[in-house]
């Protein structure tokens, strides 16, 4: 995979709330390791990135500003010169200035990862594609939760993750692994 010129990295909702109730079981034990590797390589190459953080406005949400769960996961805190876009809905483009920031930077492609594959990552990627950006999702640097189906059955997070990546790859994005993304970052810096 080649990294398109003028690509920005979008870590989405890499926050601590997702490790605790009321959030269901997550499955990807490599999420933090893979995400930190992407972030380190991206920073090392001096490429543009914008952190996306969920600032919930819902009463009782563990993602509300000021609560412990709102904090970034270890290793995902933005550096002082790195911009943060705060959202209160699933799509990073809705109710934010993300599109404006990206256009001012001349960004044509976005590499995204984070939590959760089927909600904020997928929704942001779909909207980004509809706005004309070339979207790339680093699948093994995303994670999601077990969910309850209409018949009351548990749908495993792994199945939800696989289905959403397949849908994104079919119409909205290129889906790659962390290894492929790191190789693309290295070759673009060289």
TrEMBL record:
Signal peptide: none annotated. InterPro entries: Isochorismatase-like_dom (IPR000868), Isochorismatase-like_hydrls (IPR050272), Isochorismatase-like_sf (IPR036380). Residues 7-180 form the Isochorismatase-like domain. Keywords: Hydrolase. GO terms for molecular function: hydrolase activity. It holds the Pfam family Isochorismatase. This is Cysteine hydrolase. The lineage of its organism: Bacteria, Pseudomonadati, Pseudomonadota, Alphaproteobacteria, Acetobacterales.
């Amino acid at each position: 995979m080649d990294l398109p010129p003028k690509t920005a990295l979008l870590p989405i909702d890499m926050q601590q709330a997702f490790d605790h109730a009321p959030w269901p079981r997550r499955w990807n034990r490599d999420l933090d390791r893979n995400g930190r590797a992407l972030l380190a390589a991206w920073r090392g190459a001096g490429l543009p990135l914008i952190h996306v953080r969920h600032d919930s406005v819902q009463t009782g949400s563990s993602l509300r500003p000021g609560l412990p769960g709102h904090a970034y996961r270890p290793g995902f805190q933005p550096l002082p010169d790195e911009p943060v876009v705060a959202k209160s809905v699933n799509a990073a483009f809705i109710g934010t200035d993300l599109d404006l920031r990206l256009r001012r930077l001349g960004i044509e492609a976005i590499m995204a990862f984070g939590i959760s594959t089927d909600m904020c990552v997928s929704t942001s990627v779909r909207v980004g594609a509809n706005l004309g950006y070339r979207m790339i999702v680093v699948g093994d640097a995303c994670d999601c939760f077990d969910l309850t189906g209409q018949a009351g059955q548990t749908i495993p997070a792994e199945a939800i993750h696989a289905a959403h990546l397949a849908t994104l790859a079919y119409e909205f994005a290129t889906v790659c692994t962390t290894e492929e993304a790191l190789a693309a970052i290295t070759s673009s810096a060289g």
